[in-house]
Write a structure and sequence with these properties.
The longest helix is centred in the first third of the chain and has 12 residues. This protein has nine helices and 14 strands. The chain is globular and about 55 Å long. By secondary structure, it is of the alpha/beta class. It folds into two domains: 115 residues, 3-Layer(aba) Sandwich (Rossmann fold); 95 residues, 3-Layer(aba) Sandwich (Rossmann fold). The structure holds magnesium ion (MG).
Length: 260
């Protein structure tokens, strides 16, 4: 019997740049027991190779980039069949993911039949206005995710959802959303999970990680090391199968009582 663990990154394996204690040992014991590890993140700014490098630098665990699913990759996979010319608000991870699916970003909004929005640290008011104009002219509005914030050492920064909300308010158009827990990401993760008989999703954010588990019919493990530190904060319909303090407790759950 094959077991897979789909693991979120920030808040589960590391907090900003700091590893969660015993995260490396937990991943190594799962891998040694033959568990198929998949990493799924709504961070659209990085390529999977960069995600793997950051995971190794922060946690000490070497993941194959082919086991990593990002919201940028899910967005590119969603768009690929319609072969659009998108105007892109986003960082390198999004642009590279689109090009790997044969999608070349439009240089000007007038050429665009889609507007794709991810987290864009170089966002300007001008580019926000161009995105709004393109959607107003009929371009499809697609977002990598709607996470309102993300944690930094300074506190919460505006996330992709904050940028998406600005465009949504101005256009009165709702985007197609591709990251966790939406179907494009579920489909991408399902391909990486393959034929595993049992799938666990480990995450710290109920509305993305646990909602993906529910959407896919997988079991959810909530860790209290990230954005959620009290299970009473979790909406009833997203309650997970298991709640543990951190990733260090996951091998005992997944491997059935043996801590590996
Ligand atoms: Mg997280």
């Amino acid at each position: 019997m094959t077991t897979a663990v789909v693991c979120d990154l920030d808040g589960v394996l590391y907090l900003h740049d700091r590893p969660v204690p015993r995260a490396r040992e937990a991943l190594e014991s799962l891998a040694a027991a033959g568990v198929r590890l998949v990493f799924a993140t709504n961070n659209s700014t990085k390529t999977p190779e960069r995600v793997a490098a950051d995971l190794h630098r922060r946690v000490g665990f070497r993941a194959d980039p082919a086991t990593i699913a990002t919201s940028a990759m899910a967005t590119a996979a969603f768009l690929a069949p319609s072969a659009p010319r998108p105007y892109v608000l986003g960082a390198e991870g999004l642009v590279v993911s689109l090009r790997r699916e044969g999608i070349e970003p439009a240089e000007t909004p007038a050429m665009a039949d889609a507007v794709v929005v991810g987290l864009d640290p170089a966002l300007t008011y001008r580019r926000l206005a161009e995105a709004v104009l393109a959607i107003g002219a009929g371009a499809t509005f697609v977002a990598t995710g709607t996470d309102p914030t993300y944690p930094t050492p300074e506190g919460l920064y505006p996330g992709t959802g904050a940028i998406v909300a600005a465009i949504r308010v101005a256009t009165e158009v709702a985007p197609v959303v591709c990251g966790k827990p939406h179907p494009p990401m579920v489909g991408l993760v399902r391909r990486l999970v393959g034929d595993a008989d049992v799938v666990w999703v480990v995450g710290d954010r109920p509305e993305t990680d646990l909602a993906m588990a529910k959407a896919a019919g997988w079991a959810g493990i909530l860790v209290l090391s990230g954005v959620t530190d009290d299970v009473s904060q979790v909406p009833v319909d997203l309650r997970p199968e298991v709640v543990v303090p951190s990733i260090a407790d996951v091998p005992a759950v997944v491997l059935g009582g043996g801590a590996g």
